[in-house]
């Protein structure tokens, strides 16, 4: 009798062990499948992000700020320059650069830097609202603005509004002497295209960039206009 019960119990234990092993092996297989699916999803997500970035570049859009990118800026400027030439109207370019952005990025990290760029992009867009105007991320922490049918005085007023809009964001900039509001420096250049002139649209950008450099040298957080 004892032998029979021992056999039955042994058989039951074997069945239980077999069942437990089956469940364990199924769980292991399921875990492996979930892990493989997770890796595949991450890979597909990365591919989708890369495809979106490529699409944005092809569409002339900067993926961080959702503004026009460098090539989009140049294409728009060429079109507005040709229109200004036909109409004999003034066209202005504003080049803006975030003050001490490299230090901001180094101290707070690239994600904070990207968030900062996105906020400033929205602030610039809130100032520039006419259909014939454009705000673009020119490169790095530099933004370019095209103002059609705008003389130097009008561009100067817009540039000061741009500076005020960024400072009003109240983004704290950590530095050695404590925190202060993040600011931008701005250069402005204006021209009236003419058939008998050697000036081209990219020279307007060069002039605004020189004025921007002067604003930086003069102490930052200010607007400078290109000479002439």
Described by the principal axes of the CA atoms, the overall outline is elongated
The side-by-side strand order for the widest beta sheet comes to: 2-3-1-6-7
CATH superfamily of the largest domain: Reverse transcriptase/Diguanylate cyclase domain
Question: Would you tell me the structural class of the helices and strands?
Answer: alpha+beta
The helix content, as a percent range, equals 55-70%
Describe the secondary structure blueprint for this structure:
Blueprint (H helix, E strand, L loop, with lengths): L1 H57 L11 H18 L3 E8 L2 H8 L1 H18 L5 E7 L2 E7 L3 H17 L3 E4 L2 E4 L2 E8 L9 H17 L5 E3 L3
Parallel strand pairs: 6-7
Antiparallel strand pairs: 1-3, 1-6, 2-3, 4-5
Helix pairs in contact: 3-4, 4-5
Notes on the protein architecture:
- There is one protein chain.
- The chain has two domains: 1-58; 70-225, 2-Layer Sandwich (Alpha-Beta Plaits).
- It has six helices and seven strands, in the order H-H-E-H-H-E-E-H-E-E-E-H-E.
- It has 228 residues and is an alpha+beta fold.
- A five-stranded mixed β-sheet has the order 2-3-1-6-7, sandwiched between helices. A two-stranded antiparallel ribbon has the order 4-5.
- It is elongated.
Question: What key phrases describe this protein's structure?
Answer:
Alpha-Beta Plaits; 18% strand; two-stranded antiparallel ribbon; alpha+beta; 7 strands; 228 residues; 2 domains
Give me a quick take on this structure.
With about 230 residues, the protein is an alpha+beta fold. It has helices at about 1-60, 70-85, 100-110, 110-125, 150-170, 200-215, and strands at about 90-100, 135-140, 140-150, 170-175, 180, 185-190, 225.
């Amino acid at each position: 009798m004892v032998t029979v019960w021992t056999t039955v119990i042994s058989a039951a234990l074997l069945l239980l062990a077999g069942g437990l092993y089956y469940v364990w092996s199924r769980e292991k297989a399921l875990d492996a499948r979930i892990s493989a699916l997770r890796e595949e999803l991450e890979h597909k997500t990365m591919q989708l992000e890369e495809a979106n970035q490529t699409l944005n570049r092809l569409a002339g859009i900067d993926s961080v700020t959702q503004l026009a990118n460098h090539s989009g800026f140049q294409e728009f400027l060429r079109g507005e320059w040709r229109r200004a030439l036909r109409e004999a109207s003034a066209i202005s370019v504003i080049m803006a650069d975030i003050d001490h952005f490299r230090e901001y990025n180094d101290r707070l990290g690239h994600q904070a830097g990207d968030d900062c760029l996105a906020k400033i992009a929205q602030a610039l867009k809130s100032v520039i609202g006419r259909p014939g105007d454009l705000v673009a991320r020119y490169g790095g922490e530099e933004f370019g603005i095209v103002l059609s049918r705008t003389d130097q005085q009008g561009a100067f007023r817009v540039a000061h509004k741009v500076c005020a809009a960024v400072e009003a964001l109240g983004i704290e900039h950590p530095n050695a002497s404590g925190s202060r509001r993040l600011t931008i420096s701005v250069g402005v250049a204006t021209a009236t295209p003419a058939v008998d002139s050697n000036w081209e649209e990219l020279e307007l950008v060069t002039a605004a960039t020189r004025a921007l450099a002067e604003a930086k040298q003069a102490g930052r957080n200010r607007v400078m206009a290109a000479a002439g």
